[in-house]
Amino acid sequence: MDKREHFEWISLLRAIAMLLVVWAHLGSWWLSQNQVMSDLQVYYHKFFVEPFYLYQEAGHLGVLIFFLVSGWVITHVSFYETRKEFLIRRFFRIIPTLCLTFLLVVITNKINMELNLPTLLGHEGDRWIDYIYSLFLINYYIDAPAVLTVTWTLAIEGIFYVLTAIFINVKDKRDLCKNTWNMLWIVSLFIMISSISAITINIAKLLVFVIYILLGRIAYLGFMKKIDLQSAGILASA
Question: Which of 28, 94, 109, 90 minimizes the C-alpha distance to 62?
Answer without folding.
Answer: 28
